[in-house]
């Protein structure tokens, strides 16, 4: 498995808590401070409720693969030919159904990702930063 | 809006090539001059513009065309195939019916080979830059491949069925001298196509094209004086979702449920016809999965039956429902939506030579813009 190297851009600090969580081995997502409901990806404003704010909460490490793709030609800006193939999964935590977190599929070359597969958070060191990764359970 | 009140009186395109050493403005103006001449008009006859937010503005194009007056100009706020088809036609319809103008030019230019290419639009999104690009989830082939894998999980989709979407479009391109990719491709050829983002091979993706295209919209009664048979706009429908582009590929409840049913229902209701009345269809084929799903949403087959529809050969030359008869975006050339609309007009006029669908009188054209969708029903009067 290859590992794409493309650090987060951080135009703002909005997503820094997500990466601080990964570095601590936790999956942290955003929720509505008033209703407690998950709000993911973090919107700049809560739909229909401009006064609401976001809080970060820990989500379940375990969940299922909503979908996936095995990337054989990376379209990231720059030359990433040495970093393929890798598989991206869209992960749904057990306690945040419908919230999908993109991450690398962490498994041996003989294991393929599949929709509905049970996986667990397994952060991946990508150069000098840590990104989301998910490994099959069992 | 009422059916049959406006017509597409002129169409024009530049050659479709991967990289062309001409500016976006030059290609847009070249296509516009072609469309104006095709309508039997002169540039000074154009008194309305509907441009796209990703292309040049009406004042830049108008100046280049030598047009002094511009009583009506507007810009579409949808992307992809929705903007230059359904959105532009809706604005043109409103302006002509209101008496603001007589002949509306819809110009479009596209340079896939410009720096950043078709992916730059996505890389500018902060959420993608922070959450998706760091794990390599980037570029339309990956987004739509993820849709294809989810679709396969929910409905079933074999490799042969997926291949059977792109193969008929190539067959139509073989019959179309202006198509960008014309070498024959069967299942064995499809399997030799390099994998980009599984299950998508190069053959499952639209082409990279530098080109211009344009069309002229006129009141239907004025169109009777134009050089070609009248091709009227019978139905227009637009569909949208609540999801912004930064979220729709991952967070929509179903990532492949485009708002195509909504747009088709509105267009068919306006036209007073149904999918069973169509003679042919031009379906926005950014990727094989998007054409497959839109064929279902247009009503050419039932939900979950798109793979079997294409595998049956229905979309092929001589099939019961020809689709993308100039090769679509995957073999013909990729100028989002507008070239499909132009092909619909040409088929209904007749004279498409080896690619002509016999007695074509009613054609649907779809355009996908991610979180927006347009269905247009064209008819020969």
Please write the CATH class name of chain B.
Alpha Beta
Number of helices of chain A: 1
Q: Which two protein chains have the largest interface (Cβ within 8 Å of the partner's Cβ), and how many residues from each?
A: A-B, 47 and 38 residues
C-alpha-based Rg of chain B, rounded: 19 Å
The outline of chain B comes out as globular
What about the largest sheet of chain A? 5 strands, mixed, barrel
Number of strands of chain B: 11
What is the subunit organization of this protein? Answer: heterodimer
CATH-level-4 superfamily name of chain B: Thiolase/Chalcone synthase
Pfam families (chain B): Thiolase_C_1
GO molecular function (chain B): acetyl-CoA C-acyltransferase activity
Domain Thiolase C-terminal (chain B): 248-379
Protein name (chain B): Thiolase family protein
Task: Please explain how this structure is put together.
The complex is a heterodimer of chains A (138) and B (381). With 138 residues, chain A is mainly beta. In chain A, the strands form three sheets. Chain A has a five-stranded mixed barrel with strand order 3-4-5-9-6. Chain A starts with 15 loop residues before the first helix and ends with a strand. The model of chain A has no long low-confidence stretch (mean pLDDT 96). Chain B is globular, with a radius of gyration of 19 Å. The chains are: A mainly beta (138), B alpha/beta (381). The interface between A and B is large, with 47 and 38 residues.
Could you give a short description of this structure?
The complex is a heterodimer of chains A (138) and B (381). Helix content of chain A is 6%, strand content 36%. With 138 residues, chain A is mainly beta.
């Amino acid at each position: 498995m290859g590992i794409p190297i493309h650090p987060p851009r951080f135009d703002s600090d909005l997503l820094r808590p997500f990466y601080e969580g990964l570095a601590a081995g936790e999956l942290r997502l955003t929720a509505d401070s008033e209703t407690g409901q998950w709000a993911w990806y973090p919107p700049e404003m809560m739909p229909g409720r401009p006064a609401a704010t976001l809080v970060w909460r820990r989500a379940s490490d375990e969940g299922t693969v909503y979908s996936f793709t095995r990337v054989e030609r990376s379209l990231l800006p720059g030359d990433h030919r040495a970093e393929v193939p890798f598989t991206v999964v869209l992960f749904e935590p057990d306690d945040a159904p419908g919230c999908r977190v993109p991450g690398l599929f962490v498994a041996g070359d003989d294991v393929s990702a599949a929709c509905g597969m049970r996986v667990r958070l397994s952060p991946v060191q990508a150069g000098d930063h840590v990104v989301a990764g998910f490994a099959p359970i069992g | 809006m009422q059916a049959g009140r406006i017509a597409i009186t002129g169409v024009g395109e530049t050659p479709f090539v991967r990289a062309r050493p001409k500016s976006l403005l030059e290609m847009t103006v070249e296509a516009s001059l072609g469309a104006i001449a095709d309508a039997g008009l002169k540039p000074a006859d154009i008194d309305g513009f509907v441009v796209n937010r990703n292309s040049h503005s009406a004042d830049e194009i108008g100046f280049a065309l030598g047009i002094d007056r511009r009583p009506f100009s507007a810009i579409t706020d949808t992307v992809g195939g929705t903007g230059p088809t359904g959105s532009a036609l809706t604005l043109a319809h409103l302006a002509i019916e209101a008496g603001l103008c007589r002949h509306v030019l819809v110009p479009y230019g596209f340079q896939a080979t410009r720096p950043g290419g078709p992916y730059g639009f996505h890389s500018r999104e902060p959420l993608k830059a922070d959450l998706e690009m760091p794990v390599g989830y980037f570029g339309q082939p990956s987004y739509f491949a993820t849709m294809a894998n989810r679709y396969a999980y929910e409905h079933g989709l074999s490799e042969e069925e997926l291949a059977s979407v792109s193969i008929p479009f190539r067959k139509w391109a073989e019959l179309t001298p202006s198509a960008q990719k014309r070498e024959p491709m069967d299942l064995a050829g499809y399997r030799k196509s390099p994998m980009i983002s599984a299950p998508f091979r190069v053959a499952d993706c639209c082409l990279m094209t530098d080109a211009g295209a344009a069309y002229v919209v006129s009141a239907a009664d004025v169109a009777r004086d134009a050089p070609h048979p009248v091709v009227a706009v019978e139905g227009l429908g637009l569909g949208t979702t609540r999801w912004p582009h930064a979220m729709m590929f991952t967070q929509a409840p179903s990532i492949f449920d485009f708002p195509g049913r909504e747009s088709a229902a509105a267009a068919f209701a306006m036209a007073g016809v149904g999918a069973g009345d169509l003679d042919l269809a031009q379906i926005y084929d950014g990727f094989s999965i998007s054409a497959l799903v839109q064929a279902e949403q247009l009503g050419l087959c039932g939900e979950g039956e798109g793979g079997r529809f294409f595998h049956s050969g229905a979309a092929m030359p001589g099939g019961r429902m020809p689709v993308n008869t100039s090769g679509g975006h995957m073999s013909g050339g990729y100028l989002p939506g507008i070239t499909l609309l132009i092909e619909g007009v040409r088929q209904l006029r007749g004279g498409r030579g080896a690619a002509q669908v016999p007695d074509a009188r009613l054609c649907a054209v779809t355009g996908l813009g991610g979180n927006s969708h347009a269905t247009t029903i064209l008819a020969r009067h």
